[in-house]
Amino acid sequence: MSLKEQLSLDLPLIAAPMAGGPSTPALVIAAARTGAFGFLAAGYKTVEQVADQIDEVRESTQRFGVNVFAPNPVPAQQASFEAYAESLRPEAARFDVELSTAPREDDDSWSQKIDLLVEKAVPVVSFTFGLPAADDVQRLHDVGTVVLQTVTNVEEARQAVALGVDALAVQATTAGGHSGTLTPDRPVPDVPLTDLVAEIRQKAGLPVVAAGGISTSEQVREVLAAGADAAVVGTVLLRTPESGASQVHKDALGDPSRNETVVTTAFSGRPARALRNSFTDRFTDLAPLAYPAVHFLTSPLRKAATAASDPEHVNLWAGLGYRNATTDSAETVLRRLGGDLPA
């Protein structure tokens, strides 16, 4: 059975899992209505929240998946963490929030989420940031789950193949939000997505889906021609009514004065692509590689800035195709990308 058949794809598009709120049940259901496929994002959610969202989606469709952050921590060094926290204190004082001086290390309820996904027999599960154990892949297979792994190069693809995964989500550096690299301490080579797809498809021998700044029907056709079974789109959906992105994030994506994205560790301690703002300008060079400690450190500041509608202190995740994000419905955007509507 092909991956298209396993995902029940009528439209070769996947609504990317976007942690932190954007990937709502409404967005996943909208993708299913078009014949595409959508992922819930388990990252940063409690097990109970993930369970509730799975149940909500299942009331409308069986065409969905769940993405999980696999543990691959970059432990914080106390001295560099404290130095970064100190540099943030004036910004925190502006929003009247307290910052922790003790790094928090957390596996995002990894084992409990795997147990939940097995219990719920979720149709598709994808992993990013790290690799699951082969036993976890087998447990999911035993309940009929299709397993995908996010990879950014051939070596990562080979490691994933060895675990017995069913397909690979090939992510280029043009993607918005966090890089799925397994080695966040090393720069990710800037390889065109089509080249990366073709190489990994050939050398890994598994079906692939392509992710990385895709925002036009022409780009969808290009990755399909390179060997992808589907195109993964995220940023282009962030401004839709079904997206759970904050209004400050949506407004920033539509702001014509914002004309640059940067890869930064300033918000989470792990490389991620975002719209450039004053926070990235000031703190990208100061932030240590320390995930998830930096994520937890900056979280209260980011939440306060969001509540204050201040885009200069918010992680405005965005891929290179962010200019094509519109306020149209998710169904309209996906059909347009699939060629059913004028591009």
UniProtKB/TrEMBL annotation:
| Record-level Gene Ontology MF annotations | nitronate monooxygenase activity; oxidoreductase activity, acting on the CH-CH group of donors
Which BP terms in the Gene Ontology apply to this protein? 'de novo' pyrimidine nucleobase biosynthetic process; response to toxic substance
Q: A single Pfam family, by name?
A: NMO
Keyword list, A-Z:
Detoxification, Flavoprotein, FMN, Monooxygenase, Oxidoreductase
Listed under catalytic activity are: 3 propionate 3-nitronate + 3 O2 + H2O = 3 3-oxopropanoate + 2 nitrate + nitrite + H2O2 + 3 H(+)
The organism's place on the tree of life at top rank: Bacteria
Gene3D superfamilies given in the database record: Aldolase class I
Cofactor(s) the protein requires to work: FMN
* InterPro entries (UniProt xref): Aldolase_TIM (IPR013785), Dihydroorotate_DH_CS (IPR001295), NMO (IPR004136)
What family does the entry list? Answer: Belongs to the nitronate monooxygenase family. NMO class I subfamily.
Q: What name has this protein been given in UniProt?
A: Propionate 3-nitronate monooxygenase
Upper classification of the source organism reads: Bacteria, Bacillati, Actinomycetota, Actinomycetes, Micrococcales
